[in-house]
Amino acid sequence: MSSLTHFDAEGRAVMVDVSAKDETDRIATARGQVRMEPATLTRIMDRAVEKGDVLAIARLAGIMASKRTAELIPLCHPIPLNSVTVDLVCRPEDSLVEITATCRTKGRTGVEMEALTAVSVAALTVYDMCKAVDRGMTIGDIRLTHKSGGKSGPYENR
Length: 158
Hints:
Elements: E1 24-35, H1 38-45, H2 54-66, H3 69-72, E2 83-91, E3 96-107, H4 112-130, E4 138-148, E5 155-156
Antiparallel strand pairs: 1-3, 1-4, 2-3, 4-5
Helix pairs in contact: 2-4
């Protein structure tokens, strides 16, 4: 049985022991989107949503969520993050907001879950702030697009 498993010898769930792993610079980027009616996107771009600046609040929510990933995802390690960026770009041609989050740390385990959590919560925040005018929004295509650092090596999925 691999030492990097979420199960002990009796098959019970446990947090993986990463103490023997080397500390390395680790970076992960995730991306996702919120698709909406064109009029909803126009309101976001014009900062005409009654609840406030959707993009600024979603950015902050994503950053805050990344720092709490271990509280949200069972068996996920608490990781000291060195930096988190969350970028939201309006794409009028596709009637969506594209969200990209990058997390960085120097540690023994990666930050993929932190980046994915940041994107997910930022997307949910966009939905929450705009649901009064567009309940048909869809959140999707959330995926890891880049990972570096660690034993498994780099990963790219643009």
